Amino acid sequence: MQDPTPKEVIKLRAVADYLFDKDVGKALFPDGIRVVKSKGRIRQVWLAGEPVCAIRASDGFIVLNRKGAELVHAALRPPRLRVTVSDDAAPFVAKGRSVFAKHVVAADPEIRPAEEVLVVDSNNSLLASGKTLLTGVEMVAFNIGKAVKVRRGFG
Known about the structure:
Nuclear Transport Factor 2, Chain: A, 5 helices, 10 strands
């Protein structure tokens, strides 16, 4: 593990701003982050001994770990990048189960497929993070099919 260069920090923050929202990069990658590199490219980002995220090798996109999801959750105002599930489904999602459209109570209408999102309960408590398979509008409208492939449950 090593300290990133100032240029690498700027690049990480720019990617986070692009993927999540303006000014999320500063919250997700504060001063003091450490990185793990492979073949000269950043593969993981750590903060205070905890993994924040991984950088996907194929496209450079950010895949959030628990700490990263918590930082993004705190930085974004609801309903941005959030999928709210029913209270019945919440314990299963927190264990890492996929979110099905019939359990989606609300979703950010700007969500697009293949985006990294936060899955929350009705109290906006963070349950999981994952990759969307439908748009936000479709998640609310559909009664069948998978809406979010959960990467990590935080239960």
